């Protein structure tokens, strides 16, 4: 099973990365370090130089720009199904010095259903988040929310939509 996943990822990535000159394993390691850990591109450049691999930090950035969307699509297809009972909420966090709204939903086991980071808060953002989550994972049996008016209105508008189209 692991070999099948590795071959699927390798074949998909190899199509995207045809003209790159470094081994795929080296590129994946650098992109993983960049995405998974709080390392700068210059830190990764230095770490790889210690291992005898020399390139500019901008090269890792170009790899990340090309690989991450492909990896996200591959992993999303391979993700196991989430539960039918969701807990949905919103919070605000500071991203690069600016306050942003984070909409998120998790299932009963704590697995992430979906999330959305947006600059604006309200019915439109909550509805966009909920519709995307439903499109990815189907309609849940139950959604537990806090007393957010935007989330309540989004759920009500999504529930009312199929009834109004028939």
Give the CATH architecture of the largest domain: 2-Layer Sandwich
| Low-confidence blocks of residues | none
CATH class annotation of the largest domain: Alpha Beta
Number of helices: 6
Distance between the termini: 43 Å
Rg over CA atoms, rounded to whole Å, is: 20 Å
Mean pLDDT: 84
Number of strand segments: 4
The total number of structural domains is: 2
User: Strand sequence of the main sheet, in spatial order?
Assistant: 3-2-1-4
How are helices and strands ordered from N to C? Answer: HHHHEEEHEH
Q: Which structural class should the secondary elements be placed in?
A: alpha+beta
CATH-level-4 superfamily name of the largest domain: Ribonuclease H-like superfamily/Ribonuclease H
The coarse overall form would be elongated
Model description:
- The chain is an alpha+beta fold and 166 residues long.
- It has 2 domains: 2-78, no CATH class; 85-165, Ribonuclease H-like superfamily/Ribonuclease H (Nucleotidyltransferase, domain 5, 2-Layer Sandwich), CATH 3.30.420.10.
- It is built from 6 helices and 4 strands.
- It has helices at 2-16, 24-36, 41-50, 57-78, 123-137, 149-165, and strands at 85-95, 98-107, 112-118, 142-145.
- Strands 3-2-1-4 form a 4-stranded mixed β-sheet, covered by helices on one side.
- Strand 1 and strand 2 (98-107) form a beta hairpin.
- The longest helix has 22 residues, at 57-78.
- It is elongated.
- The N and C termini lie far apart (43 Å).
């Amino acid at each position: 099973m692991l070999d099948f996943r590795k071959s699927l990822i390798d074949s998909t990535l190899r199509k995207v990365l045809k003209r790159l000159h470094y081994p795929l394993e080296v590129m994946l390691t650098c992109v993983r370090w960049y995405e998974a850990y709080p390392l700068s591109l210059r830190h990764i450049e230095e770490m790889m130089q210690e291992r005898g691999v020399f390139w500019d930090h901008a090269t890792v950035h170009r790899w990340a720009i090309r690989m991450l969307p492909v990896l996200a699509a591959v992993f999303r297809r391979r993700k196991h199904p989430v539960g039918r009972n969701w807990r949905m909420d919103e919070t605000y966090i500071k991203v690069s010095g600016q306050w942003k709204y984070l909409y998120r939903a998790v299932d009963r086991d704590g697995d992430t259903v979906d999330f959305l980071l947006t600059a604006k808060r309200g019915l439109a953002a909550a509805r966009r988040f909920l519709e995307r989550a439903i499109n990815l994972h189907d309609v849940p049996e139950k959604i537990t929310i806090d007393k957010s008016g935007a989330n309540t209105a989004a759920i009500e508008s999504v529930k009312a939509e199929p009834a109004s189209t028939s």
